[in-house]
Amino acid sequence: MELSAGRDNGQSDPGRDANAQIKQAHAGGFKKVCRIEEDSVCPFPGLASDVLDMRVKEGSKIRNLMGFAMTRMQDGQTGLRQVVFSGSGRAVTKTITCAEIMKRKIAGLHQITKLQYKGLREIWESQEEGDSEMTIHRTLPSIRILLSKDPLDPLEPGYQPPAFWDPRHAGEASQAPEKRSLDSTDSLTEPLVKRVCV
């Protein structure tokens, strides 16, 4: 039995999505035996071969990822110049978090962000008698973030220049705004949080 769901498959039943298919598989006595992610083309042309590729998964620990990546980027003798954080599905937010932490800890990093869709195929087998098998095709959102100590092409879509962040004012931006009464008229004209720009 072959089932598929996703953006680019025009033959999928419009009333069923991948989650409904997976629920049906669980209810029908199926268990997942194989998960195959399709390789996607690297969206960054001309990357050096020594680029650190950090593949972030849903269960990855941020402290482990960042410990490894920071050590490789800050090493004085063999320090790398570029790192790519990539993740898909539920790992997208964790991937963004890793990139933002690195940008805070290493000043002057240039960034290019690319969004893609990644194909995924899951094979489910019946736990009951009989050799029935079900294949589910899905497409997952995927993100790749290139951070570089060297300047990148500012005309490239998804480019962000280095943020000049001053650690002396880090506490000011994270402080809670002062409380104001709802009756005061100045709460309508002034923002609740003031930004400190250096």
In short:
About 25% of the residues lie in helices and about 30% in strands. The chain contains five helices and seven strands; from the N terminus they run E-H-E-E-H-E-H-E-E-E-H-H. Helix 2 packs parallel to helix 3.
Write up this protein.
Residues 4-15, 173-180 and 184-191 have low confidence and may be disordered. The protein starts with a strand and ends in a 9-residue tail after the last helix. The longest helix has 14 residues, at 92-105. It is an alpha/beta fold and 198 residues long. It is elongated. It is built from five helices and seven strands; from the N terminus they run βαββαβαβββαα. Strands 1, 2, 3, 4, 5, 6 and 7 form a seven-stranded mixed beta sheet that branches. Helix 2 runs parallel beside helix 3 (92-105).
Radius of gyration: 23 Å
The dominant shape is elongated
Helix content: 10-25%
Q: Give the SSE string.
A: EHEEHEHEEEHH
Beta-strand percentage?
A: 25-35%
The largest sheet, given as strand count, sense and whether it forms a barrel, is: 7 strands, mixed
Distance from first to last alpha carbon: 60 Å
Number of DSSP strand runs: 7
Number of continuous helical runs: 5
- Which ranges are low-confidence, i.e. pLDDT below 50, for 5 or more consecutive residues? 4-15, 173-180, 184-191
- Give the structural class: alpha/beta
Mean pLDDT: 78
